[in-house]
Design a protein that fits this description.
The protein is of the alpha/beta class. 36% of the residues lie in helices and 21% in strands. It folds into two domains: 3-98, no CATH class; 102-249, NAD(P)-binding Rossmann-like Domain (Rossmann fold), CATH 3.40.50. The chain contains nine helices and ten strands. Strand 6, helix 4 and strand 7 form a beta-alpha-beta unit.
């Protein structure tokens, strides 16, 4: 593994967003050949090089723009005509912003959690499963997932909130769901969803309102979770949940219904 790739792995593990600039074309004399790479952070720090000098400064500028927009871009330049460099050649650079995977924390390791975890990994989330039932929360049932086989309430208390963490409550116990919701709803997450019937959601809403939970916070909870596709099986329910999550991640204008009283 090259130093650039080690840098990218380390940045991802630290939860950092960076841009990767790769030389994809060279014509004539140039300071680097195709395949040269450079990593650029939002604060302007770099690792690696695509050639140095004024050319590299322009690539860094383009990389910062890509980080701002979140969109990949190309930077093509003639080194002498456009930048006054003596090399005389032309270079073409592809710049792509790279952000760490969003994390889905699933509380519950039952029938719905299993396909949801699988589909979420395929759709680009890293997945953590929290359930203290050792016979269910296993590597065999949740491959390539982080697993916490311990008290879910303790995990919920210790969990740090951020804009890349998604929460799904699908436990086997209504009281546990309510306890977890009360612990988590006061913090900011990318998304917080609760599985259950409309009757269950209404009861939770009333109890949490009575416990003094801010109604504005409750309005941010997606419950019952999942887009209405008539889902019945665990796999179908998982698809409906992932459909809503993708709906949210892509910023579709018509949001799913928030947690509310059902009269």
């Amino acid at each position: 593994m090259t130093d650039v790739w080690r840098t990218l792995v380390a940045a991802s593990e630290r939860g950092e967003t960076v841009a990767l600039a790769t030389v994809i074309g060279v014509d004539g004399s140039a300071p680097r050949s195709s395949g040269a790479r450079m990593v650029v952070w939002p604060d302007g720090r770099i690792a690696g090089t695509v050639g140095g000098g004024n050319f590299e400064a322009k690539v860094i500028e383009a990389a910062l723009s890509a980080l701002t927009t979140g969109l990949p871009r190309r930077y093509s330049v003639h080194l002498t005509r456009d930048l006054g460099m003596c090399c005389g050649g032309a270079m073409d650079v592809f710049i792509e912003p790279l952000r760490p995977l969003d994390r889905l924390v699933i509380f519950g390791a039952g029938h719905v959690a299993r396909p949801t975890a699988s589909f979420a990994r395929e759709a680009g989330w890293s997945v953590t499963v929290v359930d203290d039932r050792e016979e269910l929360n296993t590597e065999a049932r949740f491959p390539q997932c982080e697993r916490f086989v311990r008290d879910p309430r303790g995990v919920a208390r210790a969990l740090e909130s951020d804009a890349r963490t998604w929460i799904l409550l699908v436990t086997h116990d209504h009281q546990l769901d309510q306890d977890l919701l009360e612990l988590l709803v006061a913090r900011d997450w990318a998304w917080l969803g609760l599985i259950g019937s409309r009757t269950k959601v209404t009861k939770f809403h009333l109890r949490l309102r009575a416990a003094g939970v801010d109604p504005a916070r409750l309005a941010r909870v997606s419950a019952p979770v999942g887009l209405d596709i008539g889902a019945e099986t665990p796999e179908e329910i998982a698809i409906s949940v992932l459909a809503e999550m993708i709906h949210t991640r892509r910023g579709v204008s018509r949001p799913p219904a928030p947690m509310r009283l059902i009269r």
